[in-house]
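Z., the sequence and structure:
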Amino acid sequence: MVNRFFSELISVITRYKIYHLIFWLLYIIFWSLLLRSGVSWKQDFLNATIFIFFHILVSYFNNYYLIEWFLFKRKYLSFLFSLSLSILLVCFPLAIATFRYIPLINDSVQSIWGFSFFVTNFMFIFFTVLLTASIKIFRNWYIKEQSNKDLQKLNIENELRFLKSQINPHFLFNNLNNLYALTLKQSDLAPEAVLKLSNILRFGLYDSQKQKVPIEDDIQFVRDYIELEKFRLGDRTTIDLKVNGSTFGKLIEPFLFINFIENAFKHGANPTLGASFIKIEYTIDDASKTIAFSVTNNKPRSLNNLEKNKVGGIGLKNVQTRLNILYPGKHQLKIADELETYTITLILQTA
């Protein structure tokens, strides 16, 4: 209830710019204390109000016109000349108001039209203008920075959504090919493959829309994918999946690992290899707050130019882009391209 009251109060103050009134009221009180006459606090407040009124005129003229006309356009000499002229012009009506409305002793009355009066008030007004201009420029900078951050956040969210939309069709296309191969063979494994594919689609359609999912759900998604690949490959590829450490309570962004695994099956289960292997390992370390993922596959000793260009492809570029967005400075991606094996290691700093 209290929080709601203060939030509504701040909203009203901002909407109707009541903060301007609050600022000037506090500023007048400050000057009334600074220039105490010893008569009464009411008289001091009245004197300060008359005094600051002329400061307000120059301040708003500067903030809403001179800064826009000259300072933001980098016309510095024109800005200084216009501001100085504005302050000097205001000093004359200030002198008249001081003479007519502020009680002064004889010596002070005689000094109103003197050089020192204009120099002193010029400096006072300049101080007020400098203070209010600084507040305005800082406020404009802060609003611009917040807008840039909001825009950057929106762009990142849109980019992540776009990257996910690339993942799902690409992944679905590959698995439909697997299922098509089983139906052509009239395999008894086709119904189970349909079930695995439905689990994968459920994860892709619903869970992957969340910012983060339990890591055990993401690993189960990988297990279902591996089972589908086993239906296609049979016994010619040995697949080993290990999970080290506790997955309890650990969250991860969806689809971070599947592209690496797809790439391993694409090249590691190449028919030209004959017997092949793929090793997948997760290591969750609570002490260092890291999740380490690695996938290793064997590969042909030589690839033609076309195959070399296909290694990686859109999937790996996609996940590298996501990692740069989601884990800036908090991830290590290592690729070991050796003579007979290809290993990708990804280490994520989760805290």
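The two ends are 34 Å apart (CA to CA). Residues 3 and 9 are 10 Å apart (CA to CA).

Let me know what you think.
H.
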